[in-house]
Amino acid sequence: MDNNKKFSVVCQCLKVLNVLDYRSIFQDHRSKKLFAGSTIGLHVVAQLLQLKSYGELSEQLQAHTELAQILQLDSISASQLSRKTKSLCTSSLLALFTHLAAELHGQTRHLQGVSKSIGRLQVIDATSISLPLFLGEWAKCSDKKCGVVLHTRVMVASPDIVFPNKVIASTAHVHESAFAVELIQSDDTTYVMDRGYSKFKHFETWLSSDVRFVIRLREWDRMFPVEGTERATPAESPHILRDVDVLTTKTKTPMRMVEYMDEQGRLYRVGTSRWDISAAEVAEIYKNRWLVELFFKWMKQHLHVVKLFSKDPSAVWNQLFLSLVAYTVHMLITLELKTAKSPWTTLKLLRIYFYDNWLNFVNAVFRPPSRTSKGRQKTNKTKERLGSQRIIVR
After folding, report:
1. Is the pLDDT reported for residue 353 higher than 50?
2. Cα angle: 18, vertex 22, 27; to 5 degrees
3. What is the per-residue pLDDT for 326?
4. Which of 325, 320, 324 has the alpha carbon at shortest distance from 308?
5. Closest among 349, 316, 294 to 90, alpha carbons compared
6. Are strands 190-193 and 213-216 parallel, antiparallel or unpaired?
7. How many angstroms separate the Cα of 333 from the Cα of each of 45, 168, 350, 358?
């Protein structure tokens, strides 16, 4: 990324995207000013600023001449934006997201993952976005529900750096396990999945292909322990209840099964192909599955994903992939800065300084906290007074 201090923040974001000069042979055949590249740039701006409609996006061009100059657009109407979004090539947007995700992978290749022994994780899960019954008839999955689903694989490069590297979009009636094979490949990472991906026919394939995985088993899944493989549970890990190799009714190759209790006393059974780590580390891997839920929550709260601009099928798919493109742009900027601040803090500052110059934004990111005091500290007398107080309930 070209960190020219005179450039504005919006200019730097669009430079990371690097598609403003893109022209589509089919979609831009009769276009006079709103081309595919500038449309993608406008949508990334909308996602980063969390704009709520095409009308607000149109007003951005009117209010900020610098944005209009960068995109070479004097003005554009909301209806033109809507029509152009529908006409964008979804496959091209997916390819753009894949390219940016590959850049993220390259920048985080040196990170060791959750820990040195566990390594990097790839967590697989799905999130749904609801559509209204009338306008979302094309994505109907029941009499009372219409929606689309993003089947997502996120890379856990470190406990603080999580990003998607593969996404498959479908309507809500398609079960998540249907995409397990497409989202998993044999590499040096460990794939982590919930019960929805627990299929016996997949276990044999993954075990024979040397795929490293940790998956939660369903309560009704029958597991048959292999005689002589029971391992003693370590005294330093009292939450581990069982560690044994098992077979199923449809597998001939055994896999490892670890049973453990969490802090709330809930029982978990996970199957894995990792025999090189301890049972406690296997449990720790599955606990990190929660990072994909945090990613979905982040996307829905801080980008405009929950409420879609349009309910047309092409526009829906395109907006979802454009939101993922915006997320990768933001993560690339965060990694470039090498800041210890959280992605959410960086995004808040990016929105504040979006039309300011890059240097002011960088200074804000690295500005030390103004408050150096540890706050009001409790003295021994205060602790004694608080300890002697009684709470009376009437």
Report:
1. yes
2. 140
3. 93
4. 320
5. 316
6. parallel
7. 14, 25, 10, 11
Contacts of 13 (CB under 8 A, 6+ apart): 44, 45, 48, 329, 333, 350
> Is the per-residue pLDDT at 354 higher than 60?
yes
Question: How many beta carbons lie within 10 A of that of residue 245, not counting itself?
Answer: 19
Residue 227's Cβ-count burial label (10 Å; 0-12, 13-18, 19+) is exposed
Our measurement of the distance from residue 160's CA atom to the centroid of its chain's CA atoms, rounded to an integer in Å, reads 12
Residue 180 Rama label (left phi>0; alpha psi -120 to 50; beta):
alpha
Residue 367: exposure state from Cβ atoms within 10 A (0-12, 13-18, ≥19): exposed
- For CA atoms 336, 347, 105, 2, the dihedral sign is negative
pLDDT tens-digit series, residues 83-136: 889 989 999 999 999 999 999 999 999 999 988 999 999 999 999 888 888 777
> Which runs of consecutive H residues, i.e. helices, occur in 7-144?
9-17, 36-49, 54-63, 65-71, 78-87, 90-107
Token pair of 119 as six digits:
């390594």
Q: Structure tokens of 256? A: 């490892």
Average the pLDDT over 273-286 and give the result. Answer: 94
Can you tell me whether residue 292 is helix, strand or coil? helix
Helix (H) or strand (E) holding 82: helix 78-87
